[in-house]
TrEMBL record:
GO terms for biological process: DNA repair. It comes from the Bacteria. This is Haloacid dehalogenase superfamily, subfamily IA, variant 3 with third motif having DD or ED. One of its GO terms (molecular function) is phosphoglycolate phosphatase activity.
Length: 221
């Protein structure tokens, strides 16, 4: 194992609460009732893709950039000033790097949001790089974002472990040949987490579980 490729939202940081109602609240403010499956439909999209989907699906008169501006204004304060790191995430990153394992953050969220967050909660210094699907116009419904990140640091998928709280993202990474660890977040519900765990090589219910796995790796080195 040469590297961890770790999701941000719901994995390194506790940010999922704001995403639950972001698009729904925006539509309601425009006098439109969102469909029950809206969040599931856009879960694998970056913000650009989600805005385009909502504009087309709900026949909005505004442009996608108008949607993005409204969403990013709401997200910015939360990411810059409120959202916390997951307990133990920093300790995991430090221990992984002490073992010579590189750590990369791979997220759909714009870098302008996640970098200030990671810096504020003290995780940035222990990450070797940050890759954002927003800037690259890539989602996590295919392995392209993770394979791009690996290629940029000279690694093959088989050299790395992806740590994800999202089932569709973990499935995509596994299909590309990454080892995959599931990080269980209660936000997703028991059915999702059961499916996520079923497709993973290892299950983390907390970052302490991650530290325990690193301790086992250290014994094997």
């Amino acid at each position: 194992m040469k590297a961890f490729f770790i999701d941000c939202d719901g994995t390194l940081c506790d940010t999922l609460s704001i995403w639950r109602h972001l698009a729904e609240d925006d539509l309601r403010a425009r006098g439109i009732s969102p469909r029950a499956d809206l969040n599931a439909a856009i879960a694998s999209y970056n913000l650009h893709q989600a805005a385009a989907y909502i504009k087309d699906t709900y026949a909005l008169a505004c442009g996608t950039e108008d949607l993005l501006t409204a969403w990013e204004a709401r997200l910015e304060d939360f990411y810059r000033y409120e959202a916390p790191a997951k307990a133990g995430a920093g300790a995991f990153l430090k221990e992984a790097r002490a073992l010579g394992i590189a750590c990369y953050c791979v997220s759909l969220t714009p870098e302008g949001l996640i970098r200030p967050l990671l810096r504020r909660v003290g995780l940035m210094d222990d990450l070797d790089a940050v890759f954002s699907g927003h800037e690259l116009d890539l989602g996590k419904d295919s392995p392209a974002l993770y394979t791009y990140a690996a290629s940029q640091v000279g690694l093959r998928p088989a050299d790395g472990v992806v740590i994800e709280d999202s089932h569709f993202a973990l499935q995509a990474a596994a299909a590309a040949g990454f080892h995959c660890w599931a990080f269980l977040d209660d936000f997703h519900g028991s059915d999702h987490n059961r499916a996520l765990a079923g497709d993973a090589d290892a299950i983390l219910q907390s970052w302490q579980d991650g530290l325990d796995r690193l301790a086992c790796l250290n014994e094997d080195l």
